[in-house]
């Protein structure tokens, strides 16, 4: 965008590659009674394609300087709200729709906060996000790898994670330092957890100090009980959290809470 002072602090790298824009748009398959929520439309490159899908599209953009540019998109089914997505009351916007499709090219520092908000305040059908490549690797990391952490467990507990494509940094303006990946998170509750809040806390605590073992990270928990559950997987408290699978965390949580 000419004469636009891009703000790094808002993660402003706008997608300019038409192929990638189309690829993302094509991956979103909606019916007319669904809702697409786009977080951070920027100059509206993707928004323009999303509105063609026919269902309602609501965009949340924090930067009011984009008002003129975004108002050029003329579409009856589009609403643009200039506000911080993290502060809005999601339920006010989503309640009339059948399935919720979230889309966003997000600055890394708020990605987790945004996903947390979506998961805790709505029932998303799918979330299509563009994030930096290394972060995408952490999202879908498997146990026994250095990328596997509490974020991997949280996301894979809630979603199936599918990679749509890699995106070279040259597809953006201005060109960022790193390449990106587009992921689709599809809601899939395949695990049965009795107390989710406590499960999330257990995961966080288990990975608190990544290099330490469970005995060190879970000091405030019932050691004996956890150890006896771990024994049934041929593991014990000397293992580190990165060696524990999601299924195993679920079993531990359901037995101790
Ligand atoms: N989706 C566009 C723009 C991506 S840049 C594209 O792909 O081209 C990220 C966008 O998110 C910017 O427009 C920035 O202003 C916006 N943004 C950053 N933080 C936000 C927040 N908390 N709520 C809403 N929008 C935000």
Report on the architecture of this protein.
This protein is α/β, with parallel strands linked by helices. The chain contains 11 helices and 9 strands. It has a 7-stranded mixed sheet with strand order 4-3-2-5-6-9-7, sandwiched between helices. The protein has a two-stranded antiparallel sheet with strand order 1-8. α8 crosses α11 and α10 packs across α11. The longest helix has 14 residues. It is elongated. Bound molecules: S-adenosyl-L-homocysteine (SAH). The site of S-adenosyl-L-homocysteine has 22 residues, from β1, α2 and β3.
Question: Secondary structure elements and their pairing?
Answer:
Layout: E1 14-15, H1 18-26, E2 35-39, H2 45-50, E3 56-61, H3 67-70, E4 78-82, H4 90-94, E5 100-105, H5 108-121, E6 126-132, H6 133-139, H7 150-158, E7 159-167, E8 172-173, E9 180-187, H8 196-206, H9 214-217, H10 223-231, H11 246-256
Parallel strand pairs: 2-3, 2-5, 3-4, 5-6
Antiparallel strand pairs: 1-8, 6-9, 7-9
The site of S-adenosyl-L-homocysteine has 22 residues, from strand 1, helix 2 and strand 3.
